[in-house]
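I am writing to request your help with a piece of structural work I have in hand. What I wish to show you is a protein chain and, alongside it, a tokenised description of its three-dimensional fold. Could you please explain, in whatever detail you think fit, how the structure tokens follow from the sequence? You will find the record immediately after this paragraph.
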Amino acid sequence: MTDCPGIDCAQDRAALSDDGIRLLVDRFYAKVRHDEELGPIFAHAIADEEWPAHLATMRDFWSSIMLTSGRYHGNPVAAHRRAEGITPALFERWLALFAETCAELFDQTTVAAFMDKARRIATSLQLALFYKPEQDRPRAAP
């Protein structure tokens, strides 16, 4: 179990809530911003003064996904298409940091629920950004 300096770990491991999502999003993106691989991509896409709005959007996104709150009304594919430097391999790094952060905050059942959704989201984004159906079709014989 990870040490939780400055906060009550027992409270963090309580049932999933908007407070838990806030903590997850804030901690996760703090890690992302300092990550060698992901940090530069995010720094290029999100200016320092835009981070509070981005975090609020991500809280709404995860609240909609996990709590079915309906607060998120954005287009993740369009947002990721605008970001420069995203590669398929970076999704694995994103998932690893997300899993690490979830494990610091939630019980195994909640972590599994978050990770199921996160993997599906990552797969959907990868398909939308990188999949080229024409590459799947067999070529005609010469």
